[in-house]
Structure formats: structure tokens, C-alpha cells
Amino acid sequence: MLEPVSHLARLSVSLPAKLLAQLDEMVAERGLPSRSQMIAELIRHELAGHREEIVGAIVAGTITLIYRAESGRVRQALAQTQSAYVKEIISSQHVFLEGDQSLEVLLVQGPSERLQQLCDEIRRIRGVQQVKLVTTTALLPPLHEAGEPGAPEGRAAS
To answer: How many helices (H) and strands (E) in the chain?
Structure first.
């Protein structure tokens, strides 16, 4: 999402010619209107990754995993692992892929180290082939205000 023009700042960057050519190729392949938009996206990605490294930083994002579901054992192990992270997992989406593979995407929010622990536990499950955490510094708004009628216990805003 672009900021209003009044909030933009100019930056001059010197790059090796080959790197600039690769950047221009990426901009064209993605159909972006400018290098600036691509560079801003790359910077946001790196800032989110940097924020993950800050102990106690709260981040939101997704965990994408691909696994073989030859038996219910993998899905059962995933469900057991995810139940230990009920405060961090906002929602999940699961689809069956070709053969016996499955794709699952978890929408998550919480302390960066806790989300990384969740990824590490998922990676240890036999049958899980890929796990990737992608985060952003923007957070989900509170789902419920504390003391609000109908607010579930343990999920109220703090």
C-alpha cells in the first residue's frame, strides 16, 4: 500500500549495473509501475525479518507448511502441536494436494520467538516437508475488548 505523496522521502542508491538490471527484470516480471515500489517491498520484508529477531517483538504473519498425509498420524501430530499454540494461531486453512500431500496455512500473531518455536516444533513432525514463516510488523486489531459482552476468556485484548 502506497503512502500519500506528502509522506514520501527520496533516496539515492548506487548499485552495480548487473544488480540494477536484475532489479529492473523483477519489476517488469511482477508488472510493478516502478523500481521504488519493488524496493519498498523488499525493505518491508527485511524489516519484518529484522523485527522477528527482536526478543519480545509481537508480529503477525503466516506459517505455510506442506506435508505428506499418508496416514492420520501427521495430521494428529499437527493438531496436537497447534493446540499448544492456541493463543498464537488465529486461523488455519487446509487443502489436499496431488497424491498424498497437503498444504496448510496458519494465520498467526504473537511474540516472534514463540512463533519461531511453533515452526521448529512443526518441522520436527515426521512427514512435514516444508515450513515457512512470513511476518509483518503490522498487527491484527484486537478481536474483542476486555470486558466486552461475549468476549471469549483468554482471547480478550490486553
So the answer is: 4, 4
Taking the C-alpha atoms of residue 146 and residue 154, their distance in angstroms, rounded to an integer, is 10
SS3 content of the chain, % helix, strand, coil (to 5): 40, 25, 35
> What is the dotted CATH code of the domain comprising 58-136?
3.30.70.1150
**pLDDT digit of tens for each residue in the chain (158 aa)?**
555 556 888 889 898 999 999 999 999 999 989 999 889 888 887 776 666 566 678 889 999 999 997 778 999 999 999 999 999 999 999 999 998 899 999 999 999 889 999 999 999 999 999 999 988 877 888 766 666 666 555 544 44
* Bridge partner residues of 135 (DSSP): 61
Q: Which residue has the cell 512435514?
A: 128
Beta partners for 89? 108
The pTM (predicted TM-score) of the whole model is: 0.65
Domain ranges of the chain: 16-53, 58-136
**How far from each other are the two terminal CA atoms of the chain, in whole angstroms?**
28
Owner of C-alpha cell 525493505:
43
